[in-house]
Design goal:
globular; mainly alpha
Length: 317
């Protein structure tokens, strides 16, 4: 049983790491087709990473450890989150450590690392991106935490494996008012955390609108490859977390090889479907003005707060 749990953790990390660029490529291809373009192909992000890894690493003059360690820290924290979150199985050796507060803290650590790297360069763009990134993070992290807390109240635990397992056993509660409000708040939080429209535009370098890209403008070569891979992994992990909490059907709750294999297939299908739907929606969305983003995130926080309140009273009854 322990061997199967260890295999589940390894499979989750490998699937997120190897599949994240393919997910990004699929989303780009969907957008290209809907916009009437041929598109570069699903495998283009992998080709970009391979090209960057072959280039020379360049470090700006005057930067310190914050700039050099940020890409590695971003990838490593996301890999740890991929191992902790019950994406495919709730019976793993690390299930007991998969606390939602720890997961949110690890995600915040990656964001802070990139912000410090942007500040470390001493450029105007780096400081601007770091300021905007931390502003968004300060608003979105509590939303993700509260949305997960709303789902944890019926389970009686903040452990993600327990929350997901309770959702598998009692799927009706996911369609309750508290579950729907929490899912909506979490969806908005995922969009903001991953820098997607309407909060940020991942495909632009326009100085007046960019947030994430402004923090990483000074990176090149292998460091830029790690930054790009880390951003793609965060998107895959957060979409996987959203599907695990809102639609946990198919996740293995027993130490069975067949159940684990089925769960990995369903995880891939659900994340791919959610990514495709997000890419299709982005074609029709416009980016919000920077000063309107706090209004959107405040609204999502209110939804999460209402979800906690509704979950508390429904559970009390």
């Amino acid at each position: 049983m322990r061997a199967i749990g260890t295999a589940a953790v390894a499979a989750q990390v490998v699937l997120v790491t190897a599949g994240a660029p393919l997910l990004a490529g699929t989303m780009r291809q969907v957008r290209a087709r809907l916009e009437g373009r041929a598109g570069p192909g699903v495998g283009q992000p992998w080709r970009d990473l391979r090209k960057l890894l072959r280039k020379e690493a360049i470090t700006p003059v005057g930067t310190g450890p914050a700039f050099r360690l940020a890409p590695l820290l971003l990838v490593s924290t996301t890999a740890v989150v991929a191992a902790l979150v019950p994406l495919a199985s709730t019976t793993t050796p690390v299930s007991g450590k998969a606390d939602l507060i720890l997961v949110v803290a690890l995600l915040a650590l990656g964001t802070v690392a990139l912000a410090l790297a942007g500040l470390d360069t001493g450029t105007a763009f780096g400081g601007m991106g770091a300021s905007r990134g931390m502003t968004v993070a300060a608003l979105v992290e509590p939303t993700i935490l509260l949305a997960a807390v709303a789902l944890s109240i019926p389970a009686g635990s903040t452990n993600l494996a327990t929350i997901v397992g309770d959702g598998v056993r009692d799927p009706v509660r996911l369609a309750s008012p508290a579950g729907l409000l929490a899912t909506a708040a979490l969806a908005v939080g995922v969009l903001a955390e991953t820098g997607r429209l309407p909060v940020d535009n991942p495909s632009t370098h326009l100085e007046l609108t960019m947030v994430h890209e402004a923090m990483v403008l000074e990176y090149a070569g292998p460091d830029l490859a790690l930054v790009e891979l880390g951003a793609q992994m965060r998107l895959a992990v957060l979409l996987g977390l959203l599907t695990s909490l809102a639609a946990p059907w198919g996740i293995a709750t027993t130490a069975s090889p067949a159940a684990l294999a089925l769960a990995l297939v369903l995880l891939t299908a659900k994340v791919a479907l959610l990514g495709t739907a997000l890419a299709a929606a982005e074609v029709f969305w416009a980016k919000l003005r920077l000063f309107r983003v706090p209004e959107l995130l405040a609204g999502s926080f209110l939804l999460a707060l209402l979800a906690v309140t509704a979950s508390y009273f429904l559970t009390g009854e």
